[in-house]
Amino acid sequence: MASPSAVGAPPKAEELQEEKKKPSGQQIDPYNVAGEVDESGNIKAIDYDRLIQEFGVQPLTEDHLKRFEQVTGKPAHRLMRRKLFFSHRDFDKILDTYEQYGTFMLYTGRGPSSGSMHLGHTVPFLFTKELQEMFDVPLVIMLTDDEKYLYTRSKNDGTQKKGAGVEDFLQFAHENIKDIIALGFDPNKTFIYTDYEFLGGHFYWNTSEFESMITLNQAQGAFGFGGSTNIGLIAYGAKQCVAAFPSSYPDLFGLPDYRAPDYNPQGMRRHKPLSKIPTLIPCAIDQEPYFRILRDRCDRMTDPHPKTCLILSKFLTALQGPGGKMSASDANSAIFMSDTASQIKNKINRHAFSGGRESLEEHRQLGGNPDVDVAYTYLSYFLESDDELAELAAKYRSGEMLTGEMKQRCIAELQKFVGAFQERRAQVDHSVMREYMRPRKLVWGGNPSPTKPAGKSGEEGKDCGEGAGDGAGGGEKRADGRGTKGERKAAKRAAQKEEKLAARPKQQAQQQKQGGEAPASSEAS
Ligand code: TYM
């Protein structure tokens, strides 16, 4: 029996060979990505239309693209135009929210299973970066070193292998964070953290509350866990879920995150107005089961959050072709962001599955199939020009273009992308990395002209009425430090006002400071 694949990875090539013996349905979840195996043992391409049905997500349509362009005033990103981001949950609602109230939070993440990310991992990050630039909104990026440690140990029957201890995954996380930074995120609007370093405070309070809403049966159902899965991994999902709540990161909105030794039970609670800010998560569809669990429980939190919105991509396929995703556990299935130009060339030339014909004559006569051709597929993710992409497909189908030529085009494009990445990556040292990881007030602009700007929706009292303040606002205190009833009321009002201001993008906050009134509220669910 082949050794099992590493963290979050699809089956290795040899495992797929074994799988050939038994027909099975396609399996997509955070820990498995594999196409259907038919009666003859052939692995089929992942059927994304079927996934839409099975997961109950919505397809991304031309109407969404038009609406996106209307709201942002910018053309849709190539990954959307080509429907590589192909489905969503409530994407239209996040657009409405942004149009009306002007802001939301972006959230995505990475499970650091190796020291270098591969090309597939860059897909959601490249897209997220574009969204951040277009919408001008805050972004949090979670590195789940804890998840990958627990998963690896579970895979290894409870044994901790050499090079797979807690500190190893923390180190992978740091290397991956440098990779992510090299993709070009704005340091003023981006907070990146690893679970081992950051979890605590309001994040952990949210986690605990969320854990109490997931039963063992539900975790087993969503993630395919069994009786021998370690309990750390079973509980882990709650953390990936509450990471979507802006209330888990008060520092980013200029509010205090009560942690020891400063916590005082007198009036200190999580900041209710932050629970009104909606979140959009860009990721591949393997992560969707987490967020299904999340969306079902958002409104049961003490401070209910709007249902989190998702925009979901297909998988950048393994070099060996459709049916699995590019995987860090099989060096030959993946192009790593640390690969040299000649490694890229060799991998594409030797391993990239071809949609060409058996012989040159046949290919010239019948033409090739770009839909299954890996070199063409990679170009569809990374080549910006729609016209050139269409021309490549047409020439390949007609037989005018050969597999070797398609591979050359792909090699040139990937070498350019990875080479430019590596130059930027070389500039990211430890102190640059730490700057992104410092909990601090982020600065963003949001929608400069929301249709329901501050003060127009009448939601204010409803949103913030019960939020106990943090005691900010000063005033003389009583001997017990709580102040008089009137002082406490005034302090509470001042704290609420501060919270609401903090939860808004900077223009709106300025508007209000200059006299306008404004609810932070925006309904996304
Ligand atoms: P991880 O490290 O497995 O994957 C990181 C991100 O990359 C996506 N992805 C891919 N996208 C396209 N093609 C591929 N071949 C491919 N392989 C992976 C994943 O969907 C993901 O978006 N548990 C998570 C980490 C995480 C996270 C999140 C991810 C924490 N919070 C929020 C997305 C959103 C993980 O292990 O991702």
From TrEMBL:
| Keyword hit for Secreted | no
Spans annotated as Disordered: 1-33, 442-525
**InterPro entries assigned:** aa-tRNA-synth_I_CS (IPR001412), aa-tRNA-synth_Ic (IPR002305), Rossmann-like_a/b/a_fold (IPR014729), Trp-tRNA-ligase (IPR002306)
Which keywords describe this protein according to UniProt? Aminoacyl-tRNA synthetase, ATP-binding, Ligase, Nucleotide-binding, Protein biosynthesis
Keyword set includes Transferase = no
Annotated GO biological process? tryptophanyl-tRNA aminoacylation
An example Gene Ontology cellular component term from the record?
A: cytoplasm
- Can you tell which superkingdom this protein's organism belongs to? Eukaryota
List where Low complexity composition bias occurs: 504-525
Q: Where is the composition biased (Basic and acidic residues)?
A: 12-22, 475-502
SUPFAM superfamilies, alphabetically? Nucleotidylyl transferase (SSF52374)
Any one GO MF term held by the record is:
ATP binding
The UniProt record lists the EC number as: 6.1.1.2
Family of this protein: Belongs to the class-I aminoacyl-tRNA synthetase family.
State the protein's name. Tryptophan--tRNA ligase, cytoplasmic
* Taxonomic lineage of the native organism: Eukaryota, Fungi, Dikarya, Ascomycota, Pezizomycotina
